Backbone:
């Protein structure tokens, strides 16, 4: 089945395709066209922001517990359509089916969490300096939110924005990645079906350029109050600069070069398992994917040999077949990935199992399942000998490539884990709890794992990073409420006379 995708502004599909028509293809079989996508121009982004602005006051009037019921219905609908949505994710972006099911479950978890938040959205009562006066705080919606998301988590990560934004009384303009347009459309349809009014959630199918221009127009017209963006550091920086001009601080979730430290006292099998999952799962296309493993010198050779064996034995190929990883999301990702390989190959020991670069009939991989010639598959690669001087140490490759480096002392490990500029996720494998606590204390990453991989966030913990990984904003759990509401204070004086703060304070 081929999906037809177009922008939907206040319930009206946009058939203009000012930005042209794009074919979204199954990366495991490029002959399979998943969707024909009518791409909008910048004017549609502006129209969507206007529609969201018009719908916002009515949506905000609906009591938060009732908005929570809409979110609950969305969760139940997603659950009822779990397999279908997971199959679509696997077909459109090539994520292994088990991980796609996990991704859909993450939406359900998010809805479950925010259903309850609809009954909480607490404010506070605060004592005043003066008698007969009471102070209060309230959370108020920010207004119109513009959410721009990436193809690698085409459903769960959008839900991290959409669900709390809607719950808090905001309206939304959502632009999914073009490469996951059909998943975007399917999720938006479930939200409308659950009772989110049409103008409250507006879907824009557009490329990055039209979106950026549209955001600029809408921000200038005062139609957007908060931008949420998940994607590259480069685009995040541009969005941040644009928002700054309008005195806004976006919610950013950007790249990572996530380190995994293996201490000599670690359980090496556990560390190998964690490195395999976070380095090569989803073909390394998570923002939380493992970048470099730093291994204490005395166990380096043993770790590397077990890691190389595990990678050699891993099954790669058709993502519906229970593989460790499937294709890269797009041929452009593969081209960029091969450029990284060109960079590293002359200087390091590279461990691919049977080859490096694209998996083809001429450059095959042992145990590969699927049709290599029709899909965008690449060999897993381990690059040994990475030091802080290497480009690879600080370059996010967004593919199945893991660097390995060594260190002697714990202090060196911390410096290596912190020195690449990113600060999203970091892991340490150790059997000594004091190493774990010291690592947590000194590591700049927003998310720390102990004896667990760098990936695998849960829906109710703060998610986000520092440095090149973001501006410190956090998603998920109660912490995201600070992105989608603003604090309003109120003072209420019942003294029957003007009481002046600071001047009329009671003296003892
Ligand atoms: C991302 O790659 O943008 O923790 C998000 C994880 C996933 C989310 C990753 N649950 O790896």
Residues:
């Amino acid at each position: 089945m081929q999906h037809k995708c177009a922008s939907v502004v206040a319930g009206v599909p946009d058939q203009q395709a000012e930005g042209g028509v794009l074919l979204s293809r199954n990366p495991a079989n490029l002959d399979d066209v998943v969707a024909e996508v009518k791409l909008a121009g910048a004017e549609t982004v502006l129209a969507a922001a206007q529609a969201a602005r018009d719908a916002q006051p009515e949506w905000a009037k609906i009591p938060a517990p009732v908005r929570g019921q809409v979110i609950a219905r969305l969760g139940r609908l997603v659950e009822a359509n779990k397999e279908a949505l997971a199959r679509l994710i696997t077909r459109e972006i090539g994520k292994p089916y088990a991980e796609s099911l996990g991704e859909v479950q993450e939406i359900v978890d998010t809805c479950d969490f925010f259903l309850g938040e609809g009954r909480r959205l607490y404010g506070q009562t605060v004592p005043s300096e003066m008698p007969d006066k009471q102070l209060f705080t309230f959370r108020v919606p920010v207004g119109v939110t513009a959410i721009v998301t990436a193809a690698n988590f085409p459903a769960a990560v959008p839900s991290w924005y959409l669900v709390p934004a809607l719950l808090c009384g905001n309206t939304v303009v959502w632009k999914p990645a073009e490469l996951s347009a059909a998943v975007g459309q399917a999720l938006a349809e479930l939200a409308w079906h659950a009772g989110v009014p049409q103008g409250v959630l507006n879907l824009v199918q557009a490329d990055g350029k039209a979106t950026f221009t549209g955001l600029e127009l809408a921000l200038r017209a005062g139609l957007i109050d908060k931008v949420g963006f998940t994607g590259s550091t480069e685009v995040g920086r541009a969005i941040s600069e644009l928002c700054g001009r309008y005195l806004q601080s976006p919610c950013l979730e950007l790249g990572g070069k996530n380190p995994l430290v293996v201490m000599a006292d670690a359980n090496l099998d556990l560390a190998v398992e964690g490195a395999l999952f976070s380095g090569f799962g989803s073909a390394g296309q998570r923002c939380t994917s493992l970048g470099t493993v730093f291994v204490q010198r005395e166990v380096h050779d043993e770790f590397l040999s077990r890691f190389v064996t595990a990678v050699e034995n891993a099954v790669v190929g058709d993502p519906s077949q229970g593989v460790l990883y499937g294709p890269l999301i797009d041929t452009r990702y593969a081209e960029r990935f091969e450029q990284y390989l060109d960079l590293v190959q002359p200087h390091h020991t590279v461990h691919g199992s049977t080859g490096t670069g694209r998996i083809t009939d001429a450059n095959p991989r042992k145990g590969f399942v699927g049709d290599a010639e029709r899909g965008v598959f690449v060999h897993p690669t381990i690059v040994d000998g990475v030091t802080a001087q290497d480009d690879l140490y600080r370059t996010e490759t967004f593919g199945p490539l893991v660097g390995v480096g060594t260190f002697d002392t714990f202090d060196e490990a911390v410096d290596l884990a912190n020195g690449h500029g990113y600060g999203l996720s970091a892991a340490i494998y150790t059997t000594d709890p004091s190493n774990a606590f010291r690592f947590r204390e000194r590591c700049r990453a927003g998310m720390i794992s102990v004896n667990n991989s760098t990936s695998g966030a849960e829906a109710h913990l703060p998610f986000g990073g520092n440095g090149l990984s973001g501006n410190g904003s956090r998603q998920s759990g109660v912490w995201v409420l600070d992105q989608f509401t603003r604090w309003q204070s109120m003072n209420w004086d019942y003294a029957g006379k003007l009481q002046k703060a600071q001047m009329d304070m009671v003296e003892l």
The first strand starts at residue 3 and ends at 5.
